[in-house]
Amino acid sequence: MKKYLAELIGTFTLVLFGCGAAVLAGNFVGQLGIAFAFGLTIVGMAYAIGPVSGCHINPAVTIGAWFAKRIETKDALFYIVAQFIGAAIASGVLYLIASGSPSYDLAAIGLGQNGFGANYNGGYTMTAAIIFETIATFIFVFVVLGATHKNANFKFAGLGIGLTLVFIHIVGIQITGVSVNPARSFGPALFNMQALSQLWLFLVFPTIGGILAGLAYRFRLIYND
Q: Is residue 8 within a helix (H) or strand (E), and if so which, with residue range?
């Protein structure tokens, strides 16, 4: 149970402070600040709960690890459930905080939800969103699996993983707001009908990216064992 609780807390923290940077401080810190908020949260959580659960805090990472035969099926299922619960709770808490400001409008500002199309950030198409989310998630999970490989230097794993998430956000915020994490997309979408209607993309294609990364390690495309 400690592993599952760690995953819930880690995902809660990622969504609260990553999405919180966009909702509560986006006008002050900008896209770069939001990118670092997500990345640095991963760094902190990696060292806090990594020894307990491995700090997946992302269903795509968990699924990739399962395909790479790094996690048992039971643990993978409970990890994913914990991650979705943590993201949903974090989004509710973020809403309670944001609504404490008289200038906050849920319909106009949202909760850092992901999206695509003419009415979202850079107006990128669904095709662009699919390509970006699949490739970015593949790269992210590929880095996670590599940084935590038995031949890697574990002391720097959290830093490498966190910085990878930073550069993915720097590139991708205008495209989709950057998911690469189905749970991160799920929580904020619960409070926004437009995001909820587009949620399928952020459930399906980050998962595909995670699977591809897991298979790359399972079939030893990089490492020999």
A: helix 2-53
Task: Specify the pTM.
Answer: 0.95
Q: Are 59 and 80 in contact (CB under 8 A)?
A: yes
Q: In the structure encoding, which two tokens stand for residue 200, read together? A: 């399928």
Report the C-alpha gap between 127 and 141 in whole angstroms.
Answer: 21
Domains of the chain and any CATH numbers: 2-218 (1.20.1080.10)
The residues, any chain, with a CB within 8 Å of residue 74's CB and separated by 6 or more, are none
Buried b (16+ CB within 10 A) or exposed e, 166-186: bebbbebbebbbbbbbbbbbb
Residue 125: half-sphere exposure toward Cβ, Cα within 13 Å? 3
Instruction: Output the tens digit of pLDDT for each of the chain's 225 residues.
Output: 899 999 999 999 999 999 999 999 999 999 999 999 999 999 999 999 999 999 999 999 999 999 999 999 999 999 999 999 999 999 999 999 999 999 999 999 999 999 999 999 999 999 999 999 999 999 999 999 999 988 777 788 999 999 999 999 999 999 999 999 999 999 999 999 999 999 999 999 999 999 999 999 999 887 766
Residue 151 amino acid letter: N
